[in-house]
Write a structure and sequence with these properties.
about 50% helix, alpha+beta, 4 helices, six-stranded mixed β-sheet, Alpha-D-Glucose-1,6-Bisphosphate, Chain A, domain 4
Length: about 180
C-alpha cells in the first residue's frame, strides 16, 4: 500500500544534511514545535491556540513526528504528518523524513462515498426513463468523480506544502 501511495504522491520523503549537532537540532526544533498530538480530529479548538509555533507534535532525540498547526483563517486542509529520524554522519546531522498525507480517515470516506454513489447509480438506472437517463447520467458520473478526486488533491497538496515548509524550517534552524 505504501508503494501505491508513493506512486500517487500521497507519501513523500525528504532527506537533508545539516551542519548542526543532534542536541542543538532538538533544542531548536522545540522552539518551532508545540507539544501535542498529531491526530487529525483530536483537537477541534486548536485554531484558537495562542501559540506562535508553526508545527505541532513530538520531538525527541530519536526522531520527531509533527504536522502543520492549524490556524484560524488557514485556507489549507493540513492532513500531512511528517515522521523523521536523524543520524550523525561526518559531523553532520542526516535527517530522513517521511511525509504521509493519507490518514485512516480516508478509507471509510472512500468506501462510504463509493457505496452511496453505487446505490444512487442503480436507483437512477432502474427508475428513470431512458430519455432522461442520457442527460442525467453523465452529470452524475462527473459529480462522483469530482467527489472522489477533491480529497485526493487536497491530501497531495498538503504533502507538498508540508515538505516545502519543513525543508525551509530545517534550513533556517541552522541559520539561527
Amino acid at each position: 500500500m505504501d508503494e501505491f501511495l508513493k506512486k500517487i504522491k500521497l507519501i513523500d520523503t525528504l532527506t537533508i544534511d545539516l551542519p548542526i549537532s543532534r542536541n542543538d537540532f532538538v533544542n531548536k526544533m522545540d522552539t518551532i514545535v508545540e507539544e501535542g498530538s498529531t491526530r487529525l480530529f483530536l483537537n477541534p479548538f486548536e485554531v484558537f491556540s495562542s501559540s506562535k509555533k508553526d508545527f505541532k507534535g513530538t520531538v525527541n532525540y530519536e526522531g520527531f513526528k509533527i504536522k502543520k498547526r492549524k490556524k484560524l483563517f488557514d485556507r489549507g486542509f493540513n492532513v500531512a504528518i511528517a515522521e523523521g529520524t536523524y543520524t550523525v554522519q561526518n559531523e553532520k546531522l542526516l535527517i530522513e523524513t517521511e511525509i504521509n498525507g493519507f490518514n485512516t480517515f480516508g478509507i471509510p470516506f472512500y468506501i462510504l462515498i463509493s457505496i452511496v454513489y453505487a446505490i444512487f447509480l442503480v436507483s437512477f438506472i432502474s427508475t428513470m426513463p431512458s430519455e432522461f437517463l442520457s442527460s442525467v447520467l453523465p452529470i452524475f458520473i462527473i459529480h462522483g468523480i469530482i467527489m472522489l478526486l477533491v480529497p485526493y488533491f487536497m491530501m497531495k497538496r498538503s504533502v507538498a506544502q508540508l515538505k516545502h515548509e519543513l525543508e525551509r524550517e530545517l534550513y533556517f534552524l541552522t541559520k539561527k
